[in-house]
Automatic annotation (TrEMBL):
The keyword Transferase appears for this protein: yes
Keyword Transferase on entry: yes
Lineage: Bacteria, Bacillati, Actinomycetota, Actinomycetes, Kitasatosporales
Stored PANTHER family: S-ADENOSYL-L-METHIONINE-DEPENDENT METHYLTRANSFERASE YKTD-RELATED, S-ADENOSYL-L-METHIONINE-DEPENDENT METHYLTRANSFERASES SUPERFAMILY PROTEIN
Biological process annotations from GO: methylation
One Pfam match: LCM
Keywords (A to Z) from UniProt: Methyltransferase, Transferase
Protein name listed in UniProt: O-Methyltransferase involved in polyketide biosynthesis
Organism of provenance: Actinacidiphila rubida
Alphabetized GO MF terms: methyltransferase activity
Amino acid sequence: MSEENGRIKVALEGVPETLLWNLYNRAAEARRPGSRLLDDPRAVELVDRIDYPFERFGTAMAQWHALRVRCLDDEVRRFVAERPGGTVVALGEGLETQFWRVDDGRVRWLTVDLPETVEVRRTLLPDDPPRRRSLACSALDLRWMDEVGADVPGRDVLVTAQGLLMYLPERDAKGLIAACAERFPGGRFLFDALPRAMVARNQAGAMDPADGGYRAPRWEWGMDVKEYRKVASASPYIAGVRSLRLGRGRGPYAIAPLSHLIPGLRALRMSIVAVRFREETGTAD
């Protein structure tokens, strides 16, 4: 990274570069006057500070992305309200600014991401210990669990994986959820999943832009809306799995809350999945 004329040049590629894609979509929706779906002034500020050709992303996905983010935010807010002073572990967080959207003044936040991503994050969003910290390591390197603290009850932990698990093989994604279920009894796991048809199109190159625009990295794991309950089979320590309903959007996105019920749209709909862990791992059936 380098700074010139007050702007910071960020050079990333592959999966880490997706943090800029997600950031730009949030900022695009947050800049919208009037009926915007997401307030995210920090995302707008970051886009203005970063020297990067954001226009290559386009804004066609901004509203859909905002609906996803708002759904995830609402679930995190519920956890924060139910477990005051609890800990959110944000795996693969990139330049997500969720902390500032949901902060109640007490929540503790641990960002876990790859070293090159944490470097960018610490430059643009410096840590503020003890409530907000970053750890440079892979989400699959389970040593990050030790950073939560042995004195923190599992029920006070929410692990999020926004925009992450689709880049992992199914075995690794479910293995990560299972490891969290065993380590944080009574805790929760929140993630988003792409439909299988969309993953197949990505792998076949059918979604590649024709005009040289942004090409998303290869997705590895897809899960259709009717499959989310199968996540429970990843571990005997999972107590429940539910799919969250998206909020109402503008125009064609007004039907988002019912999109999981409409044939055709189901194959295009991203699932937001909330997993609840058993209170005591020794009581697994």
